[in-house]
Amino acid sequence: MDDDNPLNWPKSKKILNLLLVAFHAFMATFTAASIQCAFVDIAQDLHTTVHQATYLTSLVIAILGGAPLLWRPLSHVYGRRPIFLLSLLFSLVGNVGCAVSPSYGTMALCRAITGFFISPAASIGSGVVSETFFQHERARYIGIWTSMVTIGVPLAPVIFGFVALRVGYRWIYWILAITNGVQFILYFFFGSETRYIGKGSSSTSEKSSAVARWLSFKRIDPQTLTLLDFISPLKLVMWPSVIIPAVAYSMIFLWGSIMLAIEIPQIYPQKFGFNTQQVGLQNISLLVGIIVGEQIGGILSDKWMSLPTKDKKRHSPEFRLWLSHIGYLLTIAGMVVFLVQLEKSTSWDITPLIGAGIAAAGNQVVTTVSITYSVDCYPQDAAAIGVFVTFVRQIWGFIGPFWFPEMIAELGLGKSTAVSTALIVAASILPTMLLQWKGKTWRKG
């Protein structure tokens, strides 16, 4: 047995490394959403509009989708650990730049730098899980990674609403920078390299001294990098078992995460006169929904796949997709409750937030089930799948905030439910049903 192979590591080492990578992934979306409760404060400080202030979040959302195309091939050749360390160091620099930015343009530039460097773990984390854990436990541990990615969006305003109100919104950036510094130290000493292509390929042996493991940075894969390596994940658009779940999940993410994260900070201050702290607290409902949803998408998903079959063979990956329909229906129902009840409200009440929590639960179910399904189909391409899914999700999430205001202005909140329902049925439910029917045939073809 090769002790350098991450699959053969002790379970404690696997989980410690996963937690470091998952928290890094969490920091990507956490950083993107960090200022969403302070749009009004930022607009006043930088002499711009609230709508323009939201672009500081939309910009990071877009970069989180595109940047991993660069990071994936570099991490394949030089290893995951050096890329993660580089990511944290320059994310720290970008956040410090945001904290001292004197103008909107400068802050936008520093936000772009931060988004670029914080992005690797949020996409290639699926590769780390696939390299470390066996198939029968994969959904549970992919679920930990995807949960951290999803939780970052609603948790940021819960925490930073207090910060912006008590000490000013610029301290949001200082706290992010400090966190990046702590991450760097922890990953330097406790993070392990999971990129493994055969005996002797690891940058260090498990028998090496601790100092050697900390300081050893060298090329792992001798292949020569070409332009095609950087865009190769985009070829997955031709693989039905990847593109269909990616599009279906991205549509759910748009409504069950992005729409709620962008519109609550804009609607609640205007409709109810909330300050940054009060706006942030609304996101607790999303956190509860995500935690509940992961019980279905992660733990139940693995148990679902372990159900006995008549011929005692393993279920095909398509069998997992039945659980995604639970997520689709929860998201549709949650958005209906959120939008309709919010339109009816003349003073604050909890019913819209119940809908938001239901939608968030649906989003988390679909997140874990969709990504795990694609990784089950092509485990050797797990990192590329993570990059591709992130690319599709973030680009679609970037576009949404530009047309949400016009939709709400034209239709109102209540009638916007027709748009959300129609898009989820067309882009998520129907294509998934087709994939359940033809997916196995398409893969073999």
Structural write-up:
One of its GO terms (cellular component) is plasma membrane. Its main location: membrane. The chain crosses the membrane at residues 15-33, 53-71, 83-105, 111-129, 141-165, 171-190, 242-262, 282-300, 321-341, 353-375, 382-404, 416-435. The chain is an all-alpha fold and 445 residues long. The chain has a single domain (6-196, 226-444), classed as Growth Hormone, Chain: A (Up-down Bundle), CATH 1.20.1250.20. Helix content is 77%, strand content 0%. α2 (39-46) packs across α3 (50-66) and α14 packs parallel to α16 (351-377). The protein starts with 10 loop residues before the first helix and ends with a helix.
Task: Offer a few descriptive terms.
Growth Hormone, Chain: A, 445 residues, 17 helices, mainly alpha
The secondary-structure class comes to mainly alpha
Query: What is the name of the CATH superfamily?
Result: MFS general substrate transporter like domains
Strand content: under 5%
The CATH topology: Growth Hormone, Chain: A
Number of strands: 0
Approximate shape: globular
CATH architecture: Up-down Bundle
Rounded average pLDDT: 88
Distance between the termini: 35 Å
The residue fraction in helices comes out at over 70%
Keywords: Membrane, Transmembrane, Transmembrane helix
Membrane topology: Multi-pass membrane protein
Transmembrane segments: 15-33, 53-71, 83-105, 111-129, 141-165, 171-190, 242-262, 282-300, 321-341, 353-375, 382-404, 416-435
Domain Major facilitator superfamily (MFS) profile: 17-440
